[in-house]
Structures are given as C-alpha cells and as structure tokens.
Amino acid sequence: MSEQVKKIFGIDLGTTYSSCACVDEYGKAAVIPNAENQRVTPSVVFFDGENIVVGDVAMESSKLYPDDVVSFVKRSMGEPDFVFEHNSQFYRAEEISSYILRKVVQDAEYSIGEKITDVVITCPAYFGINEREATRIAGEIAGFNVRQIINEPTAAAIAYGAAESSKERVVLVYDLGGGTFDITMIDIKHDSIEVVCTGGDHNLGGKDWDDRIVANLVRQFQSKTGLDDDILEDPDTCQELQLSAEKAKRILSQREITPISITYGGERVKVELTRKKFEEITQDLIERTIALTHGILEEAKKKGYETFDEIILVGGSTRMPCVVKRIKEEFSVEPKIFDPDEAIAKGAAIYAWKLSINDDLVKRIAEKTNQAIDNVDDTAELIESAPEQLVKEVTKQMADDIGCMLPVLQRSMVKIKNVTSKSFGIVVRNPQNEEMVFNLILKNTAIPVDVKRTFYTAIADQKTVLVRIMEDETSEETAPPEQSIEIGTAVLNLPPGLPVDLPIEIFFNINNEGRLQINAVETSESRSVEIFIETRSVIQGDELKEAKSRSKSLVVH
Length: 557
Ligand code: AMP
What we know:
single chain; 7-stranded mixed β-sheet; 13 helices; binds adenosine monophosphate
C-alpha cells in the first residue's frame, strides 16, 4: 500500500487467545504470525520478576507459578474491584490487557518489518460502556492510537461478507469463545452490513466446559482412591487439572474417549472421559446458548426480521461437535463453521483498512473542495455532500495511487451499521416516590442515536440534581435499579430560587463507536451543562498516567 494511506491494524483481543491482522493491497486480510510462528497468542500474562511474559510461555508457567500468572483477564474488564497484586504493585485489567496487546503487536511488527501505531480492537458485542472504555484504555496504555473498538460478531460478519460477497442474506453469528458467548443477527447487503440485534452472556464460554470437566475429574479421583480430599485446594493439582481439562475437551472434539492423568499428594491416578459423558455434564451450558439464540430471534421479529438464512459459527468452542449437532437439531439448518480462530482478527483488519481508505478519501475530497480538514466535524457528511462524480474520480485516483483494484476499493466502502447492546437511562423517582431507572436509549437501537427527555426537579430551590447514569439489559422503558448497573454519576448545580417542577432536559448521544455522551440543560436560563461521567470502573487520571509510564519502562516478551 502507498505511503499516503496510513495502515491501521486489526486486533482480536480474545479471552483465551489474541491475534493481529492486516490487509494487503488486494484487500485480502491475513493474520500475522507471532514470534513463536503461531497465528494466535494465548491471552495469558506471567509476571516473571521484572519481566512480563505473554503467550505460550506464560501459559506453561501457570503450572509452576500459578500466583504470578493472569488468565481470562478479559472477563474482568471494566470491573472496578478487580486488581492483581504482584510485588506490592496493583494492576487493573486494562493494564494487564495492554501487555497482551503489546505482545501481539510487537511480534507483528517484527514479522512485517513495519511500525504499528494505529489499531482497531474487537470486543464482545454485549460489552457495556465501561468494558469498551477499558478495552480502549488498554490500547492507550500499550501506546497505540485506538481508532475504534468494534464488536466481535460484526468483525466476523465483515470477514464472512468479504469472503462470500455475492449474496445478500441475513445471518446469525453464533460466537462461542473461551469466556464469552455472543449471538448476533446481521443483515448483509451489497453496500452495507447491518447489525439487527445482539445478545449474549458475559460469563459463558469454553472455560465453563473446562470447569465441568475439572469437577468430573475430581469426582473420578475421589471414587477411584476413596479419598474425599478437595484436591483443588492444592494449587499445583488445580492448575494441572485446568490445563488437562482444556486439552481433554479438544481431544473429545476429535475422538470419543480420552485418558487423563491426575497427580495429587504424590499419587498419580489415570481416569477416562468419554464424549458422551462430557456432553451429558455440559448439556445445560449448550441449552443456555440455545435459549439466548431464541431470545435474539424474538427480538429480531420486533424489527421485522421473521427468519434468517444462515448460521455461522465463530469462536474456538464451536469446534465442539455438540454445538453443530444441537443447532442443527433446534433450527433445522446446517451451521457453517467459518474460520473460527481468525475471522474476528481478519474482520477487524478489513474494518481497519476501510478506516484508512476513508481517512485518505476524506483528505483528498477536502483538498479538492478547498475545505480545511481540521474543520470537518463529520467525515461521512463530507463524502456524502461531495458531488458523486468527484467522489468517483477521487476513488479511481486513489486506487491507482495505492496500487489496488477499483472494485476492491469500492467494496471497502460498505457501510457498517451497529446497534447498542445495552439500554441506557437515569435514576428517577416515580409518582409513588420510588426510585426506578428510566431508559432513554433501549437495547438494540441503531446507532448513532440522539435522544432528549425532560425530567423535573423534586422541590423548590433545589440546589443540585444528581444524575445517576445506568446501564441494563432490559428492552423496557423502565427497569428496577437493582437490575441495572451504575456506569457513572454527574452533579448538575442549579442557581438559587428556582421553582419546583423545573424542567431539566437530558440528552443522551451514542456515536458510531458506541461511546456515550450526556448533556443536561437547565431550562430556566437555558444553561447547558456538559456531564462528564465519573466512574470507578476504568483507570483514569493519575492512575492512568502511572500505568502508561510503567508500561513504557516495561519489556514485554
Ligand atoms: P476463542 O476465544 O475464540 O479463541 O476460543 C477459545 C476457546 O475455544 C477455548 O475455550 C478453547 O478451549 C476452545 N477450543 C479451541 N479449539 C477447540 C476444539 N478443537 N474443541 C473444543 N474447544 C476448543
């Protein structure tokens, strides 16, 4: 690609594995291998004295040094109470994730011989505001310019659409990874990829299947030896069982039975697990994914999508034969296993490429139309308002300059339309003076979206209004506060002497990237107050500065 187009890379920051991908001049995405010449890197971080080790070595080290190793950190993104302590230093999930990002990017840089500065990172569709912000901050701590956080199923659909671009169709993306489950309906058209609705479970993934195997192994050990010790209390045995369980699960995707050995208290016991037994002890987990899939189908019906054409499977855990079998049985379609390990990174890379092309196109159109690029607020508007002929000429010139075929470039211009995965509202009091959450934006609303609602002060001469910003899973306008999580608060100071029932206008805006902005207007003097959300859930302020400077002085292997 020419020097004019700044390359942006796609990163799949997975619960269990991560990878980095980019697009070549033919518009084809490829995953870049890591230093160990593997296409995915375990998302495992080993605090080895002064060194940070990420990947295979970290995963192996978890057997010997379980207290110095962090796995599945993605499950803790945006969690205010998660900290990992090492050598009296406390690390939040964002910082630990930043080491994973650094490892995959620095290995990619080495492999392609180029510096990587700008990235697109993927996250599960159901990630809320805090988890998304934590993902963005992880990228910032790692020193990257995070251009966008995009949803994993959207990325998978982009990769799928790019690979099989001929047909328009509605697909269900069933994404079962290491720690998370996402189910998303996507409408793939010639010129757009539109998310219809999305749902999932933050805490349902391959790890849960592993845990069931571990529990079964403990029972088998106890019945074989007659001991009723809780062998998981021994950290070495526990760690070993976790790793053996994951291995056994993979073997059972290929074979009907696998032997497993368990070492405890100097004793080594050999047991077996059959696929039949494995499927029996994990049946309820698969049923949960089926129930969530039905939930999404119901949601889609409300938007006029009565049916779908295909189910595509992504995420490593869809390799379990029970997934295909159960889906076929339930929905009478043959699910397509689509590049389970790489689809997300490749889709992110294609999206990143699209951003690069868009940046360049905007620059060129701004030049041709004599507009200063810094004054352009809405780049989509700039392109849309430019004469069609000019856009055509500029696109053709771009294709020539960057040495890429025109149809490939045009294909990169498909529009991506997304929805919110949560509902967002504020805490208000109902006429019975009870607290409840009033949702201004409902889950699965197409974004970008702007909403304005008017609320009223409770007493005369009210000094302040406390705006508690909430996130929840319901599709209803109101929700009980205990079923919502507070993602931030803001205080609106009011001038003295105002009457009761003063209207306060609250504006919620979610932009294309899924970022929430809130504004309040006190109507007596039409004073607009920008609300900066304060949250404990992500690193900010001095803590963020410290994490960034710590990161600069650390070497990640
Ligand atoms: P992902 O987050 O998409 O990288 O998926 C990782 C999960 O897929 C982990 O829980 C793995 O144990 C699981 N996985 C990978 N390969 C297989 C396989 N052949 N059979 C069953 N599970 C697998």
